[in-house]
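Students often ask why we bother predicting the structure of a whole assembly rather than each chain alone. The short answer is interfaces. A chain on its own may look different once its partners are present, and contacts between molecules only exist in the joint model. In this exercise we take two input lines together and write out one structure for the complete complex. Read the inputs first and try to guess which parts will touch.
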Amino acid sequence: MRKKILIVDDEPNIVMTLEYTFKKQNFEVFIGRDGSEAIHILENNIPDVVLLDIMMPNVDGYQTLEIIKKSERLKHTKVVFLTAKNKASDIEKGLKLGADRYITKPFSVKKIVSEIQELLS
Amino acid sequence: MSNYTLFFIIVCYLAFLFYIAFLAEKNAKSKWTNNPYIYTLSLAVYCSAWTYYGSIGIAANSGINFLPIYLGPIIALPVWIIIMRRVIRISNQHKISSIADFISLRYGNNRFLGALITFVCVVGTVPYISLQLKAISETFEIMSHDNSYIASGIYDDSTLYIAVLLAIFATFFGTQKTDASEKHRGIVASVALESILKLVFFLIIGVYITFYLFDGTQDIYSQVSKLPDFDRLTKLNSIEDGFTWLFMISLSFMAIFLLPRQFQVSVVENNREKHLKKAIWLFPLYLLLFNIFVIFIAWGGTLTFGNTVNAEYFTLLLPLENGNVFLALLVFLGGFSAVISMVVVSTLALSTMVSNNLVIPYGFLDKFSKGDPERNNKYIKNIRRISIFSIIILAYLFYVNFSIQLSLYSIGLISFVIIAQMAPAFFLGLFWNRGSSKAAIIGIISGFLITVYTLILPFTLEAYTGTKDFEMYGLFGIELLKPHALFGIDFLSPPAHAFFWSLLCNLFCYLTFSLISKGNYRERNYAEMFVDQKNYAALQDNVLVWRGEAYVSDIKSVLNKFLGVPRTERALNLFFMKYKLPKDTQMADARLINFSEKLLTGCIGSASAKILIAGAVKEEEISLVEVLKILEESKEAFSKNKMLHEKSNELTNLTNQLKTANSALIEKDRQKDEFLDTVAHELKTPLTGIRAATELLIDDEDDMPPEIKAQFLKNMLQDSERLSRLINDILYFEKLATNRKELDFQTNSIQLTINKAINSISQIALKRSVKIINNSIEEKLLKYDEDRILQVLTNLLSNALKFCAPDKGEITVTTSTVNGFVEVSVHDNGKSIPKEDFKYIFDKFYQSQNQNTIKPEGSGLGLAISKQIIEKHGGEIWAKNNKKHGVTFVFKLPIN
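Now the answer. The structure tokens for the assembled complex follow.
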């Protein structure tokens, strides 16, 4: 079965590269341009992994993660933070909130792919 | 008016005063009884019957000579405030209850000196009280039309009964507490009330005589100036008269400090030092008011009666002569008020002295040290009560035997001269630390003896022998020893003469013996303390130098005998707490000795306190040099301590300042971190896009469809543009914020600048079909940096473009002049700004969520930069929501 990935970021240029990459890896790709769009998508879909930016308008990455963690339906969904916030304290906070991986921007496309595959295997 | 009616009125009036005193005693803590007015009015106890009746006699018989007695205190008052402040402080610290206690403490708790002062005060005051009784008796007789002055026997003399009533009053309110340094609110309140009444009644009669019986001051003057001895009555007639004036003024100057009743009201009854400030103008005013009508009443009386009646009672006789009994009664009650306050306060002061400085230290110490506290307290109170009665009886007897022949005025002056003998010991003792007890004693005795010889003996002998031989020819007929012209000085009035010689001798003895004898160490200790009060007051109980062996338990048992066990415990606990000593301290130190003496002083006087405590401890003699050394050391220690304290305060202040500065720095640091974080984040975003796209283009070059390849390349270009725009804005903003960007002020037309700004964005506006309306037509010339303002305008206009309604967008620019500023507003018809965002929109990197574009195009610094620019021009920038839809950004620039 094709794996499902939800990409949540408010930067269309970044989203575009990720979408291209994961489609090529044979993922079913969903796009959310901020937290609220992501939550809307999650209501009807259960992705295997969510690639989540933190600093976004309206509903930010932390709030989105919290909602995912609360949902019984989404308990098998992995969450990976993909953010420019690279301070040790930020990383610690992200993992503490329950993110499975924490990748900082700017990122290497190859590295993201290998991390996600490792996470889902 | 009959004898009985008058007596009945007197009793009613006394009952009223009793009631007032009772109320005041009950509300001892209330503001009504503790205010500067009550204090100042109580000082007016100075104006006794002597003032009320006597001055008029003097004014009628010898002209303006009544004035010095009031000029003295008025002149003295500025000095009085300064000295009294010091005296009150010392007295409060040491629980001093009379002038005898005060002077005896200054000379090292000297028992004999205290007793001597008491004796002088009694001798000086008893005639004075008898003067008051004489006034009562004579006015009573005038009021009741009784022609025989002297009653047939003591028992049917109303004066005696009135005297007894006054004694009861003084006893009741004066001896409620054993501690004589406690305040007597009841007595003070009634004295204050009496002071008001006597002044008001005196002014009423003054107005009545001057303006009703006569036709104003002018009328009295023109009538009296026709009398043969007018000149004598209105002028100082010679240089000799001038000297008499000088001495009289000095005499009353001293009296205001030294009279026992004045000391009682001004020092013992003072409960707030600041009350002195009110007295400085109110008391002289009171005295002046009292003297306004004196001369007119005297002249009016002289014009009416000639020399046929006693001029002292013109105030009663004039209304009676004109049939106005009610007014005469008022005057009588005013005089009676003056009498009551003087008699009550004087006997209270004297009884404290007699008990604490004479009877107890000489007769009752042994008895007290064996008795229990309740019995001791009863004894002390009874001694005071008996003293009060004895003094009044003594005054009555003096009145019966002597006063009848003497005028009010001359009795008053005799008292003043006797009291003045304390002046050198009192005044010099406060300022000269060499003044010794021996010198004080010799000075007072010698001055007193001279007063007796020159002033008291002549009239006493005259009263007994009926001849004036002694006065006319001197002792043993020696010319130089004539009592009123000692050593040939014959031009002064007898009181001035006595005052001159006695005080001269007194002062000479005081100075000489002070220089010869050194006094013991205790004396020197207190001398230092009184003279350098400012420095030593701070040392508190440390001020007493004492060395020896003493057990706390011994001292405690002495205290128990007077204060009772519970009060002693309480006091000692406070003491131990104050000096942080353990409660079971065994050995007493100098501080405890001093503290205990103070505790006892109020009850039994300072001399007795010293003797009793000394009996309980084993004291070692310390040399005078050592005392001074120890005092100097503790003074130094104290000032060092004070300095350390000040330094420590300074340091605390500095620390606080540093803390504030530090927290401000921390906040700045946090803001800087936050700024850097945001900058980093903003920079990384386009960088991430570029990096990811580049990686894909390199790795996937062959598989990637060309249209995607083209899109990625386009994205990369967009991101790099964004990156460079960001870097430029950040650097520019930083330059503005740190004042490294200089503005180029030139005179420009704001309309031209607006046009330029609109032109620069018109292409984009056209593309988005947004209409720009320029409403600013009027030409306005201002001084500003055009490039910068252009930047602001472009920023506002492009913001407006971003937020405009998508299809029928409309932007309006207007200018107006408001209060010396030109206001430029940019108005759009897009969405409104959420209320909570208003305070953030000018912050760095704030991005509104309401933009039409999906991702904000700007750096997030546009408005922050605009704000900086406008503020650097001395203007303001703000935003507001429009009534219907859209937002208006407004900035204003000063015209000058």
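Check your guess against this: Chain B is about 70% helix and 5% strand.
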